[in-house]
Amino acid sequence: MPGNSFGEIFKITSFGESHGPAIGGIVEGCPAGLSLDTDFIQLMLDRRRPGQSSITTQRKEEDTVELLSGIFEGKTIGTPIGFLIRNKDVKSNDYDHLKETYRPSHADFTWQEKYGIRDYRGGGRSSARETASRVVAGAVAMQLLKHYNVGIAAWVSAVGEIEMPELHTPVTQEAVYNNDVRCPHPATAAKMISLIKEIRSEGDTLGGVVSCSITGVPVGLGEPVFDKLNASLGKAMLSINAVKGFEIGSGFNAASMRGSAHNDPFTNEKGKIKTISNYSGGIQGGISNGAEIYFRVAFKPVATIMTEQETVNSTGEAVTLKGKGRHDPCVVPRAVPIVEAMAAITIADFLLLNRLSKLNS
Amino acid sequence: MPGNSFGEIFKITSFGESHGPAIGGIVEGCPAGLSLDTDFIQLMLDRRRPGQSSITTQRKEEDTVELLSGIFEGKTIGTPIGFLIRNKDVKSNDYDHLKETYRPSHADFTWQEKYGIRDYRGGGRSSARETASRVVAGAVAMQLLKHYNVGIAAWVSAVGEIEMPELHTPVTQEAVYNNDVRCPHPATAAKMISLIKEIRSEGDTLGGVVSCSITGVPVGLGEPVFDKLNASLGKAMLSINAVKGFEIGSGFNAASMRGSAHNDPFTNEKGKIKTISNYSGGIQGGISNGAEIYFRVAFKPVATIMTEQETVNSTGEAVTLKGKGRHDPCVVPRAVPIVEAMAAITIADFLLLNRLSKLNS
Amino acid sequence: MPGNSFGEIFKITSFGESHGPAIGGIVEGCPAGLSLDTDFIQLMLDRRRPGQSSITTQRKEEDTVELLSGIFEGKTIGTPIGFLIRNKDVKSNDYDHLKETYRPSHADFTWQEKYGIRDYRGGGRSSARETASRVVAGAVAMQLLKHYNVGIAAWVSAVGEIEMPELHTPVTQEAVYNNDVRCPHPATAAKMISLIKEIRSEGDTLGGVVSCSITGVPVGLGEPVFDKLNASLGKAMLSINAVKGFEIGSGFNAASMRGSAHNDPFTNEKGKIKTISNYSGGIQGGISNGAEIYFRVAFKPVATIMTEQETVNSTGEAVTLKGKGRHDPCVVPRAVPIVEAMAAITIADFLLLNRLSKLNS
Amino acid sequence: MPGNSFGEIFKITSFGESHGPAIGGIVEGCPAGLSLDTDFIQLMLDRRRPGQSSITTQRKEEDTVELLSGIFEGKTIGTPIGFLIRNKDVKSNDYDHLKETYRPSHADFTWQEKYGIRDYRGGGRSSARETASRVVAGAVAMQLLKHYNVGIAAWVSAVGEIEMPELHTPVTQEAVYNNDVRCPHPATAAKMISLIKEIRSEGDTLGGVVSCSITGVPVGLGEPVFDKLNASLGKAMLSINAVKGFEIGSGFNAASMRGSAHNDPFTNEKGKIKTISNYSGGIQGGISNGAEIYFRVAFKPVATIMTEQETVNSTGEAVTLKGKGRHDPCVVPRAVPIVEAMAAITIADFLLLNRLSKLNS
Fold it and tell me: Based on the structure, what is the number of domains in chain B?
């Protein structure tokens, strides 16, 4: 049954509701013999954790991951890595008023209709809390990728109407994670933080954009024709809560360009075939060409706002709703490690799949 | 092995190279008992066919589909539908000069590196010719959807910098397919056609945008959390050749909006729960909510241009390339039925998956 | 990556090593709205548990299952059911001597060669301890099946050369589980127990046969042509540790029969089409025909014996090995609930798949 | 949708009904760069072909395979291999009387109930004619395996009550295919042929056993825990029409053996770790250990007999049926290449999967 898994070879299957006993998952397909730094997994989780800064939700989860299998004496052994994160700071009473109410632009109505029953507490499984499991899997994938010298960095490039200017130097994780909004351009970061605080004080929320860059990807990743690398990256991102758009390389700008301007000429750089420009975003015909892969992900504003809204309850009666609980005013800062995680899982998967392309490999 | 299939239950697996004996595929998962109009399948293929108008490639393929199984006395019988389209108007000599040359922004280099061998004639399997198989599967899916009153229409909403104004009436297939550029706004269509002809005369190419609307979708389609309906639609579109971006509902605009403006309030319309606005694009929490699903797909300009370009050959030597063969100056008019087909396959698949959600269904 | 999952719609993915922190898994695809009796899940686990009787291993695991998700107010909600069983009575020191030794007819050598590394303690993931996760999933499946009036019973029909005579009444779970060897024929059960005790006293082990009967299966389960119901049942059984053979219906006897004797004539029994005999074992053309499904599963003798054996270590040196640790002298009594579990998972999966066969269902 | 595919990486998806325009399929996952001998593919098909000898059905199909893609200049190119076999000698009128009649121990009743509609001509897709597609895929797999020095041979080891004595030399394909019954023991072969002719003259049919041996398999194939190599081989065989049983290595005999007799001691043979005996059948813990893999497959007698049988029609009325059409009196001789094909597909698949086990491979 599809729905709870991502990846073909390197694969995460997740479980868990926001206010149940625990969330967790199983990471399959990591080859045997990889040294795993479990502190790094926890570090990635800490970067996604709620309550970590003044501009995120105040729900405080320790989000301590417990690794249950698949690792022996510090190395992967080829068996699935089961893991668990207990749900601790659960204030389910905050959600009692939502038992019968359909919050606008949330998943309450659609889940109730689909399943005929739902765990309404904290959004149940539709909560972004589920993405913690993705981050665990992503942190394993990143260590596999590191072994192959692949690097991934994501960052906030827009919050509301504030857009970061284009940088002409590579983005480093240090520059990303040294401020609360995860924007590597300090002046823009300050404006973003200020805007988020202002919006929060109004009880409102904001959308934004997360950009991502993947470097060191070998030539050849991607499985034509339906599992093009860009298609799978797109699905990975669009499966994250609140995402409304995805563009790779030239993206939507490509629509208004001419072929003569958009084409990336090949050149021979010290014996290595490369492209001079990179409108392709590192992928041609669905397969990586060795250049930087870069893409942008659009997030809608968080649906839970603190002002009154009109809606209906499960019997169809009109009701007035006012947000309670603890929520993010803008989701993109905490989305950065999630985007990185999903990118890492996708690339790791295709890296392994590519072992199968040739007769002698 | 992933790569050649799309869908979990309603599923297309395709095969075939552009200049081999034939392309074709297998459609699985169509329930037994559906009356199939084979003329409609051919009609959809005709809409994708090269050489059909003055603004498309002059390669003339009849593209006659032969249905080989899965249908008995005009109805599906629950077994896979095998089908075949012979490649006829093959001028492989046109491609001899490409045997060793890597065309910019084509798949030549990446395929050669991935597999160590490739059928270079006409792009082999990386050619958009493969999408004819998708159209066949899509035409089956559309007939299944029609049985459930689901309607799909796509159209060209932008060519280069020419954008169609927003229509305030639903788009009909009649209005789409009555002009060569498949834009349902006649005045804009005329400008687009004129621009494409101008660009072609310069030996250049153009990108564009295809929009798509799906109506009549029941509430409940989508498989959380990784197989959200929007994520699978996005993958479906991003797997089409030349696609660089996908946005659903409010799309990238959502990034600069506030929650209070973006939320779609629920209301009770004659006993039916609906949303007043539809920034969600008909999907909430990854599951359809019964409203119109709409999205936009960005296509890059065709990579084959008729002016000289610098590139390298397979040994890394610099060479000058000038496009030969017969190519589209702008891909979006012929992409319309492909977008419709992939949308239909995706919705049909989730329609069937949704039979599995509840205990008693 | 295949290996850790079974089922397409109703699906178990398991994780865990014998002497790691825990084993567990994720059950996907159980439709929403099923009332789940968690005591029944524990009861099934208790039936598989080591240390439960005088003829099983003395390793004492409480094997308490903790259900972590997918259930709300006593019912399934359509989300994955994550679960966990802690490993408690771990005496890893018992296995130190096996670090470098390849036990005959165990998985030590093959796992080491496949992965280059292994958790040698208690057999790691190759231990039959993993089957506890199958029993949990099976206990969920059985409750789904019960809702559809499908019943499953397995029993020990042979231990060594002692075979149970054919019963002419249906086997009940009560008759199976009321003795330690799980043979519903008391006189035979007594002989089997006595033989097992005798063999154990010699430090040796014994093989046996588990038989299984499934009743109330609706007509139509099975997915031709590669996923015939008998083929999937066979794989389910052959994936259980120590299984060497599987036969359904007439089984190997069919090879020496004539068509005129083997065919099952159809008849009309009060308006219902049935077969008079049932050599088919309830499955024709890979699809259930409504009759009882029955099959037999052959288990080899347990590989760990308490007498000295010649073998080699990982550097290829000859060594002498004598079994330590706590092991079963005969695996079939504890295999009974595992066979039932795997049968239940398989039938549940095909029951759901069959919802997809027809246009209007 | 499961049903029409076998394999994870090396994968066959088949289509086609017995009396439709064609049968065929798609072979995916064969690595690029393999030289393919298309004559060998046809040779394998010829060995399965009806009408080839005096003891098989007289239906005469040329069964000429047309390869449509995936091969360029004699080599695989990593893309799917589409293929087609036209149905030529179709005498559908022979089957008109079966339109409403449920033949005993055929798939008529179960297919009709499952799908509500069926192509009754020649059994439609439930016909063993479908296995021709398996043979094509198997012939590709065999060439991949040959590259890795894996050899496969199957043979008829029993027909009715006539069993071949155990040979003490390896079975060669030459010895198998040099007589009509495919038994490598000439004296037994003669008896089998004589028995089949006798049974045919009585209008009756016979079951039999096919044995199979796989040599040169590297250590490490098999994916624990659910996709053990023996489990997948078992499913492969049980998915073949008319198969009722499967046993590997010691098989059902294991049930009555003691561990001290059944264990296969390891030894060091010139620096290579091997087992002295091979009751395991070359697989331990679900993973190949380098020794010969051998198994036996039981086939029931053909259901179509030429004597009168009582049965019912689709409205439940009692009718008398007498076999018409052209059928095999005993299926095992023609099953030999099918068993080889399914074994080859399975081993090829696991050979490729095993590339994914270790970090550095």
Answer: 1
**Has residue C125 been placed in a domain?**
yes
Best residue in B252, B277, B349, B355 to probe A by mutation, most A CBs within 10 Å? B252
Domain of C23: which CATH number? 3.60.150.10
In the predicted model, residues of chain C with pLDDT beneath 70 are 89-94, 325, 361
Kindly report, residue by residue over D128-168, the tens digit of the pLDDT.
Answer: 999 999 999 999 999 999 999 999 999 999 999 999 998 88
For residues B325 and B223, the model is more confident at B223
Query: Closest Cα to residue A312, out of A115, A111, A105, A104?
Result: A104
In one-letter notation, the amino acid at residue D40 is F
Domain range enclosing D92: 5-356
Task: Give strand ranges (E) for B17-79.
Answer: 22-28, 65-67, 71-72, 75-76
How high is the pLDDT of residue A92?
61
Cβ-proximal residues to C100 (8 Å cutoff; 6+ apart), any chain: C313, C314, C315
A14 contacts A25 by C-beta, under 8 angstroms: yes
Buried b (16+ CB within 10 A) or exposed e, A97-107: ebeebbbbbbb
Which residues, at least 6 apart from A183, have a Cβ–Cβ distance to it below 8 Å?
A155, A156, A157, A159, A164, A176, A189, A192
Site of tokens 């760069």: D33
Pure H helices in chain D: 38-48, 108-115, 131-147, 173-177, 186-201, 229-238, 259-262, 332-353
Cis peptide before D225 (omega within 30 of 0): yes
Which residues, 6 or more positions from B217, have their beta carbon under 8 angstroms from its beta carbon?
B150, B282, B288, B290, B293, B347
**How many residue pairs bridge chain B and chain D with CB atoms within 8 Å of each other?**
148
Residue ranges of chain B whose CB lies within 8 Å of a chain D CB: 1, 3-4, 8-11, 13-17, 20-26, 28-29, 32-33, 66-70, 72, 75, 77-82, 84, 114-119, 124-125
Question: Does the structure show a pLDDT above 80 at B326?
Answer: no
B20 is a domain residue: yes
Residue C284: what are its φ and ψ, rounded to 5°?
A: -130, 125
CB atoms within 10 A of CB A253: 16
Contact B359, C33 (CB under 8 A): yes
* Cβ separation B257–A207 shorter than 8 A: yes
Find out whether B190 and B272 touch, Cβ atoms under 8 Å: no
**What backbone torsions phi and psi does residue C92 show, to the nearest 5 degrees?**
-65, -25
Chains in contact with chain B (at least 3 beta-carbon pairs closer than 8 A): A, C, D
* Closest chain C residue to the Cα of A75, Cα to Cα: C117
Could you give the 3-state DSSP secondary structure of residue D88?
coil
The position carrying tokens 């998967």 is: A349
With contacts defined as CB-CB under 8 Å, which chain A residues touch D78?
Answer: 357-358
What ipTM score was computed for the predicted complex, to two decimals?
Answer: 0.97
Task: Examine residue C361 and state whether it is found in any structural domain, yes or no.
Answer: no
Q: Which residue has the tokens 């006829």?
A: B88
Q: Would you say residue B90 has pLDDT above 80?
A: no
In a domain, D361, yes or no: no
User: Chain A residue closest to D143 (CA)?
Assistant: A359
